[in-house]
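Possible regression after last week's pipeline update?

I re-ran a chain I had predicted before the update to compare outputs. Posting the input and the new output here so someone can diff against the archived version. Not blocking, just want to make sure nothing changed silently.
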Amino acid sequence: MQTQAVPQLYRAVGTVESQTTSILGSQLGAAVKAISVRPGDRARKGQLLALLDDRAVAAQWRAAQQGVEAARQGGAEAQQSLAGAQAELHMAEITFHRYQGLWEKSSVSRQELDQAETRYKAAAAHVAGLQAQTQQAAAAVDQAQSQQAAAHALFTYTRIVSPLDGIVTAKNVDVGTLVMPGTPIITIEDPSHYRLVAGVPERYQPLVRLGQPVRVTVGESALAGRVAEIVPAADPASRNFIVKFSLPQNCPCRSGEYGAASFPIRQRQEMLIPEAAIVDHGELAGVFVIDAQNVAHYRLVKTGEAAAGRTEIVSGLAAGEKIVVSDLDRLSDGSRVEAQ
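New output (post-update):
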């Protein structure tokens, strides 16, 4: 047997979490009126999950709607008055200019011309005043619409809807609870994309690269992961860097599960033999070693990690020794074999 260079792996342990988790909280102070889901339920994007008491904000919304209608009506009346005044101004202007021509021909008196001019200026002043009122009415409509939009926004805050297709993982309050802005109500997560969040010692952090493929184990499942994010600041307590490993889509994972990611930190010389060459006697493991006379001798060995059909031999074998790898069931200590 010969030794070979094998990557030495570091096993970073951590916790599985969803890549997308939404904690849905209240944005106003109100009592919880209804909750339509429980932990474990699936929810669709846009689905109503909980309802807060909406009586006060609904009244504000209705009052704001009425304010918009009143402002619009005032604006319409101002526009109508302005249209009438502009027509009067037009007639007064025509009359004034006609009187100017007649006065030049001495067909009207100076008093009549002055009276026409006075009526023209009064009509112009009336139009200017109504134009100001129309602008004020338009501003009132804009303000009323803004108040309506704000009231509608408050009303929508009483509806807690799902922002994604996912699974409800927590119900933080019960019906009747008085919640304040920021109070968590329901937690929902995306079950199709999970990641492993693990700590990596400071000395190994330079060996971790974005996009690096890694082997991840979650429960009994072995998964192909990839380095998705490296938090650049270390935890001052543990001196570990947080590394986030993406997991395959729709993996059999759940938030909170224990997991581990293995990645190489250095090369080491190991002796690997076929797993089939190991003969177990109870809790002891051994192999048949062939001596110079082609006689097989059973020898106890200490095994290490096993992967891909090969097992690491920590002690009990030396480089260059020959072992039996087949037909072990017909062998016993001292049997002669034909070396190949």
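Follow-up from reviewer: compared with the archived run. The longest strand covers residues 258-274. Marking as no regression found.
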